[in-house]
Amino acid sequence: MSVLIADDHPLFRDALKRAVLQALPDAVLREVDSVAALHAALEAQPDTELLLLDLHMPGAAGFSALVHTRAQHPGLPIVVVSAHEEPAVIRRAIAHGASGYIPKSAPVETIVEAVRQVQGGDLWIPSAARGAATPLKPAEVGVAAQIAQLTPQQFRVLNMIAEGLLNKQIAYELGVSEATVKAHMTAIMRKLGVSNRTQVALLASHLAVDADAIGNGAESFEAGTHAQ
Asked: How many alpha carbons lie under 13 Å from residue 66 in its C-beta half-sphere?
């Protein structure tokens, strides 16, 4: 079984590898530490059968990497592994398409159980988050659907915009021309239904883990839209 671990903390990746091998002794493990590396790994190995994904890595924030990876690889089971343990956050991850959610504080035995259960085709979440599902806000659902339409390169540009990088900085990071970045910007704004980079960043905030950030982003986005 081919398993990909996406996390930017080497020590935690090692802990996950040990737990996965305990759950799936014959697994072939690969690891990446950024969203760009994640895209490259999945493109190179389309037969990957399980992904363990940290919510916060270089190139992603909040649920954006989960949403985009789920859209690009709809048949791939994704287990979110995160330091966030709030039931509402866990339920939102499941609503966005995760097959499981493992808190980083979980003991090895729990990780083993979760991996085995998801590998068997079931859903796994901590007992504290079980029960009635938490429906996503309509705005969050809409933003997730729009971000799902982006290509991997457009997704990278989106997150760099959200980080506040200028076009010339994005061009340097991606190794492309500013004209190419502007072309990506035009495509991103068209797919997201906005008219400027500020609105792009505010729209992306709907997928933040912090509920307050979502609310503030929504209010700012609405205000900016009405002002035009």
From this structure: 29
Assess whether 172 and 145 both reside in one domain.
yes
164-194 pLDDT per residue, tens: 899 999 999 999 999 999 999 999 999 999 9
146 plus 99 within the same structural domain = no
11 and 111 belong to one structural domain: yes
Residue 110 sits in a domain whose CATH number is 3.40.50.2300
Report whether 90 contacts 100 (CB < 8 A): no
Residue 153 has pLDDT above 60, yes or no: yes
Quote the pLDDT of residue 124. 94
From 80, 109, 129, the end of a domain falls on 129
Instruction: Verify that 20 and 72 share a domain, yes or no.
Output: yes
pLDDT band at 133 (very low <50, low <70, confident <90, very high): low
Instruction: Look at the chain and report how many structural domains it folds into.
Output: 2
> What would the 3-class secondary structure string for the chain be?
CEEEEECCCHHHHHHHHHHHHHHCCCCEEEEECCHHHHHHHHHHCCCCCEEEECCCECCECCCHHHHHHHHHCCCCCEEEEECCCCHHHHHHHHHCCCCEEEECCCCHHHHHHHHHHHHCCCCECCHHHCCCCCCCCHHHHHHHHHHCCCCHHHHHHHHHHHCCCCHHHHHHHHCCCHHHHHHHHHHHHHHHCCCCHHHHHHHHHHHCCCHHHHHHHHHHHHHHHHHC
